Amino acid sequence: MDDAFILDKIRNPETRSYGFNLLVNTYKQRIYWTIRRMVIDHDDADDLTQETFIKIHHNLDRFRSESALFTWIYRIATNECLGFLRRKRRRFLLPIHDVENELASKVTDGHQMDADELQQRLQLAILKLPEKQRLVFQLRYFDEMPYEEISAITGTSIGALKASHHHAVQKISTELSIALND
Amino acid sequence: MKHPLEDPLKNNPFTAPEGYFDRLDETIRQRITEKTLPVLWKRNVLRLASVAAGLALIAWFLMPAAQPQTAEEILAQISEEEITLYLEVHDALAGEDVLLPAGDETMPNDILFYDTILQF
Lengths: 182, 120
What we know:
The complex is a heterodimer.
Chain A: H1 3-11, H2 16-39, H3 42-58, H4 69-91, H5 96-108, H6 117-127, H7 131-141, H8 147-154, H9 158-181
Chain B: H1 20-34, H2 39-62, H3 71-76, H4 80-93, H5 106-119
């Protein structure tokens, strides 16, 4: 569904509700999977997806079309994710690697994923990246998002994103090469 | 040798419960209509409630037990003059039934007033 069409419906008070339903329908799967890759657990991803769309609904009047609707939605979703992981660390006073271990155990317990060994190794390697670098890598690798869009979502320069992504690919490739040679 | 990040790895290894995306629209719609508390917040409330209950239990065990006062101790706090005055008044009223109203005139008015309240 075209963003311009959705916005047109949302801006008309008579079709606002219909427009929001179109927005949810268009973006729910992409937003859920982006969140899910970050938090691994389905229940957490479900909560955060709902929160994202509720925030979008409550702030629709604040959207001024200075950015694309797509970018604005993704910015809210990724902020929800990073905020959730930050709160998780703060709540339990956990250092970053303990949160990583908790997420890694969800990858390996078999309930959350239907993955072969190599895919599981990839997910574990991705989890070793710092959170923001992980987000950038996942948006680029899985969602195949252009750097321009990732830049608009994360508020990071394209140059910095390219460097971050390059380092992420190197780290993951090294991890996977070690795993393949085991 | 293929690059370790070859395309088949892009396949989504995660699974969502069956029918999850069909129900998601309705769940979001309900949450917006009901204006319920955020789910994450609800979870935190449960955690906080259990922590608070634990703290209350610890405080209850640590606090010195309140000593109930005996009748003698309560009487010791009242002056002799007050006790004498109380006994004199009590003796004087012993022959009268002070719980009954002096006349029946006040009762119908009270009932009427109550009926008026109920009508609103």
